[in-house]
Amino acid sequence: MSTTKQLWQYYATRLRASFERDNDRGEVSATTVVMAAALIALALFVGATITSRVRDKANSLDLD
Fold it and tell me: Which alpha helices (H) appear in 1-64, and where do they start and end?
């Protein structure tokens, strides 16, 4: 099993456990906050990458 797959399985297990524990106490755990921050950072990175590539492609068009 690859290291990446093991990490994703670990994080998925931790996230599920965090949600189950949160339902009992009604609190947000540190794991939930870290996972949310990681997903937000990933979304920002993907958005910036797509924007950059689209802008570069648009600037390379010859409209003359």
Answer: 3-25, 30-60
